[in-house]
Amino acid sequence: MLIAIWDTTHLLIWAATSREDFQPRSIADVRTLLGDLAGDSLLVASAEEAQIAIDLPDARDVPVPALRLSPADAMDLLTSLPEHLPMGCSDSMRVWTILARIVVRAMSAQQFYPSLRHPEGRFDAVWQPLLGGRAEVENLERFAHAMPGVCRAMNSLRDVHPLRLVETFLSETTDAL
Prior knowledge:
- By secondary structure, this protein is an alpha+beta fold.
- Helix content is 41%, strand content 24%.
- The strands form two sheets. The protein has a four-stranded antiparallel beta sheet. A two-stranded antiparallel ribbon has the order 5-6.
- A hairpin with a 4-residue loop joins strand 1 and strand 2.
- 33% of the residues are buried.
């Protein structure tokens, strides 16, 4: 089963043996499962390997091999996936695929604007998504609150609010495109 985690700057994908048994699979298995699903073998083959620590139902800080994708590569991957993901994908894959489609719709409708970030004493010009009013913001808030816990299974995300993950995904991927 493929599982996706957004760490506020990258999409991390790892695989578990099943929905009932969250034991991590090898990085070779992740590449094979994702390559079969995505059909973009070059993107999957060139994805950077990472070691992350996750919290499982019965253990904390379990080391897991994962693929790390930049925001642009994450968008390439997520938008290449079928609309109805197969059973071999966790709900976390569905979350990020839905959000990727929201970014694509916003970009297609030219609903983005220039902005500045001020990290580490410098200014960076970035593109930000323009949300379509209060109703869309409320929908994204509900979406974030319904986010499955596995989306925050990485121990460094324990205290990160789900809405923060949604916001950074939308911002980082919009800017990357």
